[in-house]
Write a structure and sequence with these properties.
Elements lengths: L1 H24 L7 E6 L3 E3 L7 E5 L7 E3 L14 E4 L4 E3 L7 E5 L3 E5 L6 E4 L11 E6 L5 E9 L2 E2 L3 E5 L3 E6 H4 L7 E8 L2 E11 L2 E8 L6 E9 L11 E10 L6 E9 L2 E3 L7 E3 L5 E4 L9 E21 L2 E8 L6 E9 L1 E18 L4 E15 L4 E8 L5 E6 L9 E4 L7 E6 L10
Antiparallel strand pairs: 1-32, 2-6, 3-5, 3-7, 4-6, 7-8, 9-15, 10-14, 10-16, 11-12, 11-13, 11-15, 16-17, 18-24, 19-23, 19-24, 20-21, 20-22, 20-24, 24-25, 26-29, 27-28, 27-29, 27-30, 30-31
Length: 442
């Protein structure tokens, strides 16, 4: 009898020990999935054609590789400035936003980015003066298929389909997509593969340059578009030899007409120009509205409110004596944290929001730290006193959007504008954790 009790007790003790060990060493159900967050790699476009261009990154050690059909491994860098010739560059995923800078008789800048499936370009031209190109970059290792749809004042043009070989760039002349069309909006939809697209808008009349700029991509239509960083004739540019004009370009990509209201914000306050308080915009037809009431001697922003999702941008035409330049300003996202490398540029930073409160930190070209807190209502513009390299902007409140205006260097007349939009947003993925309890035998 005693032996029988001992065996039962021993068996019970052994069972309890096994249960205890399982509880200690096997994760709970809620812990069997681990969430991992990473930044996607982004693409910096190269224009080619002997145009001087570089890509600026925030850390010299960030990996990069050429998208040339052969190179497949990222290599750690040694500098924050990457020369670009005829091939685009893939930048390792990181929290900063890389930027491509190009200079000729003009200035052009664009955030390096990756498509989330569709990219919109509210700008460009297929008219006789257009020398514009759409660059479709496939950074993956298999062929990509994309669809390109162009909208004009008369409606949509038939969709064009393209196959982009692995690890390469397809360069498409815009005037072949929309011959003779001066006012267009382009949608690039990825059907397969890993694609980033860029629109470079250059204008020429014979051998005479009429200016050039990138049109920064937009991910989707919104009911409010904030066009934050529209340049003006500031400082030495404001003289009798120079002139400026702006045109607002709008598209309703859906099938329902929209009613919009346009508000101009500047350091002088905000107002709705006469005739722009209630404007009907036909769906899928590009509409251009001259901003004749906009200030000319200062930077400003445009807020477009709509009852339907819309896309919008502003084209600025400059005349500097006998020279010309164009600048595209596209919509800015809501700002949280944004960092980049301005490679020595002396920018004007602009912000909009009901209550603006931002912190600017930067490394200047002279090695000193720059720190500035900006607060305002509706709109504020601040010009850095020196050229900046690494720049970090942090929104200390909600509902704030920002943009950057790059003014001429002494060697040229170019002006460019870009939104404070992240080139790649943080992506999350779930990874399973090994769990012995899911192993069963039959």
């Amino acid at each position: 009898m005693i032996k029988r009790i001992s065996l039962r007790t021993g068996s019970l003790i052994a069972f309890l020990l096994i249960v205890l060990a399982l509880n200690i060493f096997i994760p709970e159900r809620s812990e069997q999935i681990k969430v991992v967050s990473t930044y996607p790699a982004t693409v910096c476009p190269a224009i080619g054609n002997k145009v001087s261009s570089i890509a600026g990154v925030t850390n010299p050690k960030i990996g990069r590789r050429s998208i040339d059909g052969a190179t497949k491994r990222l290599a750690a860098g040694k500098t924050t400035q990457i020369p670009l010739s005829n091939t685009s560059v893939l930048i390792e995923g990181n929290a900063g936003t890389a930027i491509t800078f190009a200079n000729n008789k003009w200035k052009a800048a664009v955030p390096c980015s990756v498509s989330n499936g569709q990219q919109w370009f509210v700008g460009g031209s297929g008219a006789i003066t257009s020398k514009s190109f759409l660059y479709i970059v496939n950074s993956g290792y298999s062929d990509s298929n994309v669809e390109v749809e162009v909208f004009t004042p008369n409606g949509a043009i038939e969709v064009s389909e393209f196959t982009v070989p692995q690890n390469s760039t397809k360069k498409i002349s815009v005037d072949t997509l929309a011959p003779g069309e001066g006012e267009i909006v382009i949608a690039v939809t990825t059907k397969s593969g890993r694609v980033s697209s860029f629109l470079f808008d250059e204008r020429k009349k014979g051998l005479r340059s009429l200016g050039a700029d990138f049109v920064s991509p937009v991910a989707q239509a919104e009911k409010q578009v904030r066009i934050v960083s529209i340049p003006g004739l500031v400082g030495k540019l404001n003289n009798n030899n120079n002139s400026i004009s702006q045109i607002l370009r709008i598209l309703v990509p859906g099938k329902i007409d929209a009613n919009i209201e346009v508000t101009i914000n500047s350091n002088d306050g905000n107002f709705v120009p006469d005739g722009l308080s209630e404007v009907k915009v036909d769906s899928q037809r590009v509409l251009s509205i001259p901003l004749s009431a906009a200030p000319t001697n200062q930077t400003f922003s445009v807020i477009v409110n709509s009852d339907q999702p819309i896309l919008a941008s502003v084209l600025t035409n400059f005349t500097f004596g006998r020279s010309n330049e164009i600048t595209w300003t596209t919509g800015s996202d809501i700002l949280s944290n944004w960092s980049t490398n301005l490679t020595g540029s002396r920018p004007i930073l602009t912000f909009v929001g009901d209550k603006i409160n931002v912190l600017v930190k930067a490394n200047s070209v002279n090695g000193k730290k720059v720190e500035k807190k900006l607060s305002a209502k509706d709109f504020i513009a601040w010009q850095s006193p020196v050229g900046l390299n690494r720049l970090q902007v942090t929104a200390l409140g909600k509902g704030i959007s920002g943009g950057v205006i790059l003014l001429p260097l002494e060697a040229n007349i170019g002006i460019s504008s870009l939104p404070m939009n992240n080139g790649g947003n943080l992506e999350t993925a779930s990874e399973p954790i090994s769990d012995a309890s899911v192993i069963t035998r039959r």
